[in-house]
Amino acid sequence: MRFSSIGDVVLTTPILRSIKQQLQNVTVHFLTKQNFLPVIENNPYVDQFFAIKHGLEEVVPQLKKESYDYVIDLHHNLRTFKLKRALGQKAFSFNKLNLEKFLMVNFKINRLPNQHIVDRYYDTVKALGVTNDHKGLDYFIHEKDEITITNFLPTAFHNGYHVLVAGGSYFTKQIPLNKLKEFCNKSTSPVVLLGGKEDADVAELVHQTFPKTTLNLCGKLNINQSASIIRQAKTVITSDTGLMHIAAAFKKNIISVWGNTIPEFGMGPYMPGEKSLIVEVKNLPCRPCSKLGYPKCPRRHFKCMNDIVVPRPDL
User: Fold this and answer.
1) How many helices (H) and strands (E) are present in the chain, helices listed first?
2) Residues of the chain predicted below pLDDT 70
3) How many domains does the chain have?
4) What's the CATH number where 30 sits?
5) Domain check: are 201 and 274 in the same one?
6) Are 71 and 33 members of one domain?
7) Do 171 and 276 fall into the same domain?
8) With contact defined as beta carbons under 8 Å apart, do 7 and 241 qualify?
9) d(CA 224, CA 143)
């Protein structure tokens, strides 16, 4: 079980692969929210998918009929607690480190383990005899969503391009407009801007500044088409987003830009390209200010993003 979101679902893929490959005669089912099903539905290590549109009552009767031997909870919240109780089978639940994150956010007391969330996922299933195969993340794209660059992008992009992710789930995770422009200005390769419909206006301002060397595709592609664009990119520049984890699944060189959150939460790029960089403002007293994010900077200065030093995208 992993209900949301894009990046979190992608981060479960090593566990799915390892369970399927390391255990004999195993059948794997996956439960998520309907919105995030496209992220995982092409995964060949899953035998059947279930999705929730509104509530657990939609899937509980079906899941009970399956008579599972084990339930693996990689979300671990109140909703998954209710579901585990309803199913009544032996369950394994991962440690969310809520106390450690609370101490770090509120008191800047670092009790966080030096461990990626993927490794904590593996700890969750170690009792089953599943171990880390160190092959990284997976992402599978159906052929209908694969994009042929020479047919889809302008000629100037055919010899290579960078991807710049324009948005983020929270404002305090998003790369500011002036920094987006700075990345484009420093790039010697053309730049494709990716994001959702909500990011299109900001991306268009970047495109208007660099009309010949950028392409705004925000809101114009589905998640798997965006993944295809990422798979074929030279470098991916992104904040702490789901697209960052998709890029890591393809072993891309990633410039990950961190605002109010920190990689120490265990959600940095997992086994990305060897030239990947983490860009952040170290030793900022107010950072991290949240384990998720805010619609605006609580201190109003947004130094965690405004003070970053933009590197050259051409790694």
Assistant:
1) 13, 10
2) none
3) 2
4) 3.40.50.2000
5) yes
6) yes
7) yes
8) yes
9) 10
